[in-house]
Every structure is written in structure tokens, then in C-alpha cells.
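G., the chain you wanted modeled:
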Amino acid sequence: MTEEEREDAVRRARRAATAAGQEIVHLELPSWLRVLGLGAWLIVGVVVLVGIVLLLLARVTPLLIPLVLAAVLAAVLVPVVDRLQLWHVPRWLGAALVLLLGLSLVVVVAVLVILVLLDESADIWQDVATGLESASDQVDPETSRGAALGGVLRGAMRALLVGWLGSAISSVAAVLVGIVLGTFMLLFLLKDWEPLTTWAAGHVALPPRLAEQVMQGTVHAFRGYALGLTELGVANAVVVGLGALVLDVPHAGAIALVSFIGSYVPYFGAFVAGGFAVVVALGAHGLPVALTMLAIVLLANNTIQNLLEPFAFGRSLRLHPLVVLITTTAGTLLFGLMGAILAAPLTSGLLNALRLLRDAGLFDNPAPPGEAPVP
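Predicted structure as C-alpha cells:
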């Protein structure tokens, strides 16, 4: 083969390859497949972005949790500081007074709960031990297996208690650091709430007026949620406290106070407060009275609360009780205690923000170039 023939063969091969490539390029995929592929890549991108955000949030959790809780408490307590300022109390002094009052209430409740539990601890442990021995005897009263089973159960309870105390002690330092950070953050937020919220609204990628409306709606949701929890807490405290008085359970006032404070942690706070009431009743009068106290707690935290929730939350959150339950449970599973407290008001604030953005037309599709929008 001559040189010219070889060059001609190469040119023919190149032309054939180019024609084949053009056929591949012009291959038309079905529209549904293109849409599906684009959607799949968008979903992958969103998942990766959410994962990165969650990873970053996990790294700054010791700072983020005090900041979020301080912002929520400030949104609820700022009206009190504003009222003190109207009474000619300096802003910084009003913020300090409100902060000291809140801290004093928390300390008083914690000390009261500890004192009541210490006062009833001997009787409680005695009743628990008696119940374990009775259960052991019923398992096998004729042999020593019952006593052995009781010993195993008591040992397991001690091991669980020691493990819980060990984990609690190991996290005391982190909790103390978070409390100190949150206290200072709350003080500054109470003192400079208006300038800080104005600055935050100005640094959101929204028109200033719209950003201010979104922030005001979120703050209103948290304040309304706190008011609704207060109303439910008063109802629970009255029912549980009166039940403790009728059953002659000691420390009825402390039980009512713990029930009131526990209402600020939806569902799970009521569980802890109810457990406290039942434990005190168990230590004072034994199992029958404890079961009666449990029935009263369930009545207060289920029937009565379900009757009052639509009125307590309907005006402020505009959320169905089922939505409150689902969001609270999901928040608890994802973010623990903080998720339980913040899930419902954050959901309400998010829905309000979406409504404002939709009303402002930010979700509307822009008109194609050269085409005038439809009036």
C-alpha cells in the first residue's frame, strides 16, 4: 500500500468515526428519563448538603445548644424587659432582674425535687425491695430461686443506677460550660434584643420588610407556644396537686410545681413529672395509692390535656394536636430534649415563613425572556 492509499484510508476512518459520533450525540433520550435523572442528581446534592450541614452543626453543638435555648428564652422574656423599661427601669437592669428571677426559679425547683426525693428515698427503696421479694416468692416460693432472683434484680437496679450516675457526672463539666455560655448569651439578648434582631433581619437574603415579618412571626409562635404550655401546665398542676391532696400524698405542693414545670417539655416532661408523683406516692403509702396516683396523672396528661390543647395552641400555633405530637416525637428522636422543646414552635414558624414567602411571590416562576408577565 502506497503512502497516498494509507492517508486515504485514515481519512475514511476519521469520517466514519465522526459520523458515528454525530449519531450518538444526536441520540434523543425520553423526556421522562431526563427529568428523572435530573431529579435524582438534585436529590443527591440536597442529601449531601444536608449531611454537611448536620456534620458542621454536630461540631459546634456545645455552642449551638446554649445559643438556641438563649434565643428562645429571650423571645419569650423580652416583653417583660420591655415592660420594665416602660416603668423607667434601665434596660440592662431589667434584663439582669429577669435573668436572676428565672435562674432562681430553676434552682428552687431543682432543690425542692432533690429534697423531696431524699425525704422519701428510704420508704421508696423499702417498697421496691418488698415488691421484688414478693415477686420472687411468687416465682418459686418453695425454693431459694425466688431469693436469688430478687438478689439479681436488686443488683441489676444498682448497676443501672451506678451507670446512670457515672454518665451524669462525666457530663457535668459540659453542662456547666453550656449553662454559663447560655446565661451570658441570654443576658445580652434580653438587653439588646431590638438591635440584634434588626441586624439579623438585615443579613438574610430577603427584602428587609419581608425578613422582619418572618422573624416577627417566628417570635410570635414561640411566645404563643410558651403561653399555651403555661395554660396546660396550670391545668395539670391543679389536677395532679388536688389528687395528691385527696390521696394524702406528702409534698403535694412540690408535686404540683414539678407538674407545672414539666409541662414546658411537651409529653416527655409530663412523663417525668408524673413519674415523680407516682414515686412519692409509692414511698408514702405503697403500691395501691401509687397506682391511683398514676391514674390521676394519666387523666391529667391525656384526657384533660387533649381537651385543652386545641384552645391553648390553636390561636398561637395554628397546628393540629396530631401535628404537635408528630413533630415533638421526631424532634426528640433527632435532637433529644432540645428537639422536644423546639419542634412544634419551629414548625409553626416555618409554615408561617413559607406562607409569607408565597404571598410575596418568591415561589412564582419568572416570565420567560421577552414575554410580559400575565397581569
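The chain has two domains: 61-194, 202-359.

Shout if anything looks off.
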